[in-house]
Design a protein that fits this description.
It is built from 15 helices and 23 strands. Helix 9 packs across helix 14 and helix 10 runs antiparallel to helix 12. The strands form 7 sheets. It has a 7-stranded mixed β-sheet with strand order 17-18-16-15-21-22-23. A 6-stranded mixed β-sheet has the order 3-2-1-5-14-13, sandwiched between helices. Strands 4-7 form a two-stranded antiparallel sheet. Helices cover 33% and strands 23% of the residues.
Length: 502
C-alpha cells in the first residue's frame, strides 16, 4: 500500500480553480479556491485564458499544501477533475496556447462546423460510436474552429507541432513540465472523436473533422499513471483523472446500474449508471463513459443542463440584483406569492432533453407587482424544473421511476432549492455530508490509482447530511411543471437557423 497521509484533488471548474485535501479515511480537511476571468468576445462566445487557469490552479494547490500539509512527502497522490469539453490547443515546442480555451458553453460552431458535419452525413455514425450528438457543446467542433480560424494553426497541426487537450490534459502537461500528454476515458468520451465501444480515437471521425491524430493525447483509464508533479524536492504521483460529472458519479458511489446522481454546478448534470454494456438513449440523452477503471468500464446515460449555477452568477454579475449566491436562498424564502414567474435560462441554448442551440433565455409571467426577489426565486426554481425534464427522459430510458435522487455541487447547500427539488420531483432528495462529490471522486480515483484504496473500501466513507422529503401537494407540483413546459416551448427556435450568420 502507498505510504502517505493525504490525497489532493484538483477541481478545475468553469468559474474557479480549487484544490481539496482529503485524508486516508476520506474526510475533507481543507479547500482553497480562486476565481478566474470569464471572457465573452461576442454573443454566444465563451473563452478562458489557459495560462490563467494554470496559474490559479497552481496557486491554490501550493496554498493548500502550505496551510495544511507539514511535508509534501505526506501526499500520497494527486487526482484531477475538470470542466469537460473545454478545448485548449497549444504549440508543443513553446508550450503556449495558440488561442484562448473555448469553453463548453460556447456556441460559435453551431452554424458552420456543426452544419458541415451534418451535411457530410456523420450524425448517425457519431451517435452510434460516441454516444453523443453533433452539437457545439463538444470539443471536436471547437478544434475545427481553431484550425480554421487561427493564423498558421492548420499548417502547424499538419506538421505535428500542435497538441489538443481538454483541461485535464492541459493541467497534466503543465504539472509534468511537458513530459505527459494524456487524458482519461471519461474526458475523451466528450470530444466527438473517441469511440466508446473500442476505447480508441476514431480514425473515421478524425478524417471527417480534419483533425490530425498526432494532436491527440493518450487516452488511459481513470485510475492510472499520469506522471508526477515535482514540488519542493518531492515527486508527487498523479494517479486519477475524470471529467467533473463522471467524478461526481464516482464520488456519490453510484457503482450499480440504475443509480442516479445530479450535480448542481455552473451547469446541472444528471448521470445514471447503465452498467458495462454501451446502449443509446431513446429520449434525447447522451451515452458516455461513466468511470473507466482498467478492469471495470461502466457506461452512463447523461442529461446535460447548460445553465444552473451560471444563472445565479448572472443574477450577481449581470443583473447585479444579488451580492452573493447564498443571498438567493434568503430572498427566495422571504418572497411570498406570485410564485408562477418562470425564468428559462437558455443563455447558450437548451441542452437535454431539447438540444436546441437556437433557444434563448426568457422570463415569463411578469406582472406589475413582480420584484427582483421573484426573479431570484424563479431562477433558483429553474434548476429544479430542468432537473425534472431530464429525470423524465432518464426514467423512460430506464423503464422505471426514480425512487430517490442523490445530489451534490455547490448549489445543494441551498435548502430552499433542495426542498423545491423534492417537491417538484415528488421523491426524496439525498444530500451527502461532503457535497464536494466531484473532488471526492477525483480523490477516490487517485487513491485507487496509487494503491491506497480499493473500490470496495469506499463504501464506509459515505455519510448523509440531510434528506428532503416532498411537502408540496402533487397536484400543485404538476401544475407548476406544466407551466414550466409552456415557458420552455416559447423560448425554442428563437433564432431562425436559416438566417443565422456563419
Amino acid at each position: 500500500m502507498t505510504e502517505g497521509k493525504y490525497i489532493i484533488a484538483l477541481d478545475q471548474g468553469t468559474t474557479s480553480s480549487r484544490a481539496v485535501l482529503f485524508d486516508t479515511s476520506g474526510e475533507l480537511l481543507g479547500i482553497e479556491q480562486k476565481e478566474f476571468t470569464q471572457i465573452f468576445p461576442q454573443a454566444g462566445w465563451v473563452e478562458h485564458d489557459p495560462e490563467e487557469i494554470w496559474e490559479t490552479q497552481l496557486d491554490v494547490l501550493k496554498k493548500l499544501v502550505r496551510d495544511h500539509v507539514a511535508d509534501p512527502k505526506e501526499i500520497a497522490a494527486i487526482g484531477i477533475t475538470n470542466q469537460r469539453e473545454t478545448t485548449v490547443v497549444w504549440d508543443k515546442n513553446t508550450g503556449k496556447p495558440v488561442y484562448n480555451a473555448i469553453v463548453w458553453q460556447d456556441t460559435r460552431t453551431s452554424n458552420r462546423q456543426c452544419r458541415t458535419l451534418r451535411k457530410a452525413g456523420l450524425e448517425p455514425y457519431i451517435r452510434e460510436n460516441t454516444g453523443l450528438i453533433i452539437d457545439s457543446y463538444f470539443s471536436g467542433t471547437k478544434i475545427m474552429w481553431i484550425l480554421e480560424n487561427v493564423d498558421g494553426a492548420r499548417g502547424k497541426a499538419d506538421n505535428g507541432d500542435l497538441l489538443f487537450g481538454t483541461i485535464d490534459t492541459w493541467l497534466v502537461w503543465k504539472l509534468t513540465e511537458g513530459k505527459v500528454h494524456a487524458t482519461d476515458y471519461s474526458n475523451a468520451s466528450r470530444t466527438l472523436l473517441f469511440n466508446i465501444k473500442t476505447l480508441q480515437w476514431d480514425d473515421h471521425l478524425l478524417e471527417g473533422l480534419a483533425i490530425p491524430r498526432n494532436m491527440l493525447p493518450e487516452a488511459k483509464p481513470s485510475a492510472a499513471d499520469f506522471g508526477e508533479f515535482s514540488y519542493r524536492n518531492t515527486r508527487i504521483p498523479i494517479t486519477g483523472i475524470a471529467g467533473d460529472q463522471q467524478a461526481a458519479l464516482f464520488g456519490q458511489q453510484c457503482f450499480s446500474p440504475g443509480m442516479v446522481k445530479n450535480t448542481y454546478g455552473t451547469g446541472c448534470f444528471m448521470l445514471m449508471n447503465i452498467g458495462k454494456t454501451m446502449r443509446l438513449s431513446e429520449n434525447n440523452l447522451l451515452t458516455t463513459i461513466g468511470v473507466g477503471l482498467a478492469d471495470d468500464i461502466s457506461y452512463a446515460i447523461e442529461g446535460s443542463i447548460f445553465n444552473a449555477g451560471a444563472a445565479v452568477q448572472w443574477l450577481r454579475d449581470g443583473l447585479k440584483i444579488i451580492k452573493s449566491a447564498p443571498e438567493s436562498k434568503k430572498l427566495a424564502e422571504e418572497t411570498k406569492g406570485n410564485d408562477e414567474i418562470f425564468v428559462v435560462p437558455a443563455f447558450a441554448g437548451l441542452g437535454a432533453p431539447y438540444w436546441d442551440e437556437n433557444a434563448r433565455g426568457a422570463i415569463f409571467g411578469l406582472t406589475r407587482d413582480t420584484s427582483y426577489k421573484h426573479i431570484v426565486k424563479a431562477t433558483l426554481e429553474s434548476m429544479a424544473y430542468q432537473t425534472k425534464d431530464v429525470i423524465i427522459a432518464i426514467e423512460k430510458d430506464a423503464g422505471k421511476e426514480l425512487l430517490t435522487l442523490k445530489v451534490d455541487g455547490g448549489a445543494v447547500a441551498n435548502d430552499y432549492l433542495m426542498q423545491f427539488q423534492a417537491d417538484i420531483l415528488q421523491v426524496p432528495v439525498e444530500r451527502p455530508e461532503i457535497i464536494e462529490s466531484t473532488a471526492q471522486g477525483a480523490a477516490y480515483l487517485a487513491g485507487i490509482g496509487c494503491g491506497l484504496w480499493k473500490k470496495e473500501d469506499l463504501e464506509k466513507f459515505r455519510k448523509l447530511n440531510a434528506v428532503f422529503e416532498p411537502e408540496m401537494p402533487a397536484e400543485r407540483a404538476e401544475k407548476l411543471y406544466s407551466r414550466w413546459k409552456k415557458a420552455v416551448e416559447r423560448t425554442m427556435n428563437w433564432i431562425d437557423e436559416d438566417e443565422a450568420e456563419d
